[in-house]
Amino acid sequence: MYALSVAILIGAQFASSLTLVQRNCSVGTVLPGHHFEDSNHVIAHYDNKSQTECQAACCTNKLCNGWVFTEWQTGGSFPPCMQGKPCCWLKADVQQSQIQPTANCTCGMFPSPPLPPPPPRPPGWPPKWCGVHFLADSFEGGYKYGSPQAIESLRDVADTGITHVTFSFAWYQDNVSVPGPIYPANGSTPSGQYCKNSSSPSMTDLRYIITAAHEFNLSVELRPMVDPNWDFMTNITSWRGEIGNDFSESQWDIWFASYTSYLMAMAELAQETNVEMFCVEGELNTPVFHPTNGPRWTTLVKKLRGVYKGLLVDSPTEKLGSPLFSVVDYLGTDNYNPSEADFEAWAAASKQYGKPFLLQESGSPDGDAMFYENLFQSLSDKQWWAGVMFWKWNTDPKANASYCAGTGRKYSAWPIHNAPPQEVLAKWCPVIGK
């Protein structure tokens, strides 16, 4: 059993002094989190020879929030840490302790300095979309939208202080090379083949979950999507953005007829249930940017506006200049690694079209809370920015909870619920989203 209790004088980059907060680390316990070399959390290892050196290395580095010293490196070599040799791992962020039976270590952490509260929204500024994609069934959610578990999980969304929710779901087509039909995967396909790995929410379940969201005072975006049917996929790298790569003009006409029928049904549901925003397409990059499809999209939007009176948004993946930008109300994109150059491009697009810009999908695949914090800090004061919807929050109310209970299970991909990003959204959404 290792246990340390020390007070350390911190350099000028920290407060004048700070007591190191120690976990009661025993053999078999490690301290998960990102190792770092720079602010991008590039992995680096420091070959210190003792626990004291490791602790001192953390104390003198302004990016370090925790450290783990292993008396001998297990499982392999990660230069400069070599198997069988002592090593020090510095942590840019610190997560819940995790049991690893073969580990041998001593660890400690600094409490992260409290982040400044978000600034109040200036008078006259409209609220921004601040929320999550709420996923069910084959979209990794685990439970149907009409289940008690989904309602419990949705209540957690509202209780967190999140103000907006996107219901993202899919209908399917057999593969990216056929122009339809587009169908809900609820048992079997139009050709009679059984769907095992693909599923779509029923209209009843969608109506139920939208009504529940409004009862929880959440604003709703409905985002119908199209995927190649996973049951028929021979090339698992194919995705919705490749639909129609080799279509002829007549095939595009067939595909748009099927897609229009799908979207009109969903737009009617959105109008019936008072949905605040409706997504015209999500990540359909080839259908959107094919050079002859602009008029087809314009025709579709005119039909949608005939039945749906709320806001329309478009969100291709990481690309701007969609022909839909001139006919929808909000511009959008999906981007999981936005840069300052992206921010400038979004601002320019907003100015060009005279419309707000929504970051329709983003997030950290490993639940890095600082990704969310930095995004809010960078964009919250931009008037052109309409907000962000993060991927993803599951219908399973216990998603990620077993990790926090110390079982050793890791977070699911892009975790928010029961994970560090939830605290960041709890801080920001009540300020910028209401």
Please summarize the sheet with the most strands.
8 strands, parallel
Number of helices: 10
- Approximate strand percentage: 15-25%
N-to-C series of helices and strands: EEEHEEEEEHEHEHEHHEEHEHEHH
Task: Explain what this protein looks like in three dimensions.
By secondary structure, the chain is of the alpha/beta class. Mean pLDDT is about 80; it is low at about 1-30, about 35-45, about 95-105 and about 405-410. The protein has helices at about 50-60, 150-160, 205-215, 250-270, 285-290, 295-305, 340-355, 370-380, 400-405, 420-430; strands at about 5-10, 15-20, 30, 65-70, 85-90, 100, 105-110, 130-135, 165-175, 220-230, 275-280, 310-315, 330-335, 355-360, 385-395. It contains ten helices and 15 strands.
List keywords for this structure.
434 residues; alpha/beta; 3-stranded antiparallel beta sheet; 28% helix
